[in-house]
Amino acid sequence: MMKKAVLIVGCGDVARRMIPWLVRRFRVFALIRREQDRAQLRAMGVCPLIGDLDDRRSLRRLAGLADYVIHAAPPAANGLFDLRTRHLIAALRCGKSLPQAMTYIGTTGVYGDHSGRWLDESQPVAPTTPRAVRRVDAERVLRGLARECGVRVAILRAPGIYAADRLPTERLRRADPVLVPDEDVFTNHIHAEDLARLTCLALFRGRAGRCYNAVDSSALPMGAYFDLVADTLGMPRPPRVSRVEIASRLSPMALSFLGESRRIRNRRIHDELRHRLIFPTIADGLRAIATDPHLP
Fold first, then answer.
1. How do 263-264 and 118-119 pair as beta strands?
2. Radius of gyration of the chain from Cα atoms?
3. pTM of the model
4. How many structural domains compose the chain?
């Protein structure tokens, strides 16, 4: 009996963490933009396909290819619509058969600012940045696919992703400041390995059109997060400054993350996806990284 097929779109760090689990169970295809990625993916047991979500003509081979799709590609950097997701869906709909299920890795940024209040998936989206607006557009288009074509789409809303090689070490080395405690914002995080596993589980356990907050149980102020990373790595803690002062010392991108504060509940990933987090809190993840320097 031929194995069913999975297509990965957006084959970055999180997606590559899924591959060892996926290749034992499925034929795995990956859409890639760069020829130089072919050899590494083939060595992992993946069939790479060259294509570009910004070029609809390059996506023709995707039609009818896979039983399951993992969509982990971000939107383009400009505009109010996620044209990449729209191009992907258009390509999939050209085939004689559609995927049975699809998981999309989005962002908790779609919720906007809630001044540190707790929220869950029932909270209406209220994006405040252009990149979050594009993510809301992607969710809307994917839900349309689910309604119109019966594809079981699960949407994961992920916060800041961390791992051993995804820590803010450069910011700590530069001594970039963080906010004083009484002006700080709450942030949410997930380890890359937990997000990879949640993505795979959502393909089979996710409910149709359902959103899942793919966050751990930390909900730390941003400054506390940077302090914790600094302490774990034996680096100086960042200086604390006021919101007025920090505006002249950080990049516009870094500043944009200081405009939103929220704490996010994650009960649904436990109750419905039935995932027991490998790293329930950032402290757990950093402790593991400090104990095993080879941990990815």
1. parallel
2. 19
3. 0.95
4. 1
Residue 126 neighbours by CB distance under 10 Å: 13
Q: How far apart are CA 40 and CA 44, in angstroms?
A: 7
pLDDT in tens, 216-265: 999 899 999 999 999 999 999 999 999 999 988 888 888 888 999 999 99
**CB distance 279 to 288 below 8 Å:** yes
Residues in the chain: 296
Q: Please state, in angstroms and rounded to a whole number, the distance separating the CA atoms of residues 235 and 57.
A: 49
Is 94 part of any domain?
Answer: yes
Cα–Cα distance for residue pair 259/213, rounded to 1 Å: 20
User: Structural domain of residue 37, as residue ranges?
Assistant: 5-160+191-215+264-278
Burial class (CB in 10 A: 0-12, 13-18, 19+), 266: buried
From the list 73, 139, 61, 64, the residue with the least C-alpha distance to 99 is: 64
Residue 22 and residue 29: Cα distance in Å, rounded?
A: 10
In Å, the largest CA–CA distance within the chain is 64
At 167-192, the pLDDT tens digits run 999 999 999 999 999 999 999 999 99
Q: What is d(CA 82, CA 42) in angstroms, rounded to the nearest whole number?
A: 29
Q: Has residue 241 been placed in a domain? A: no
CA nearest 33: which of 79, 76, 65?
76
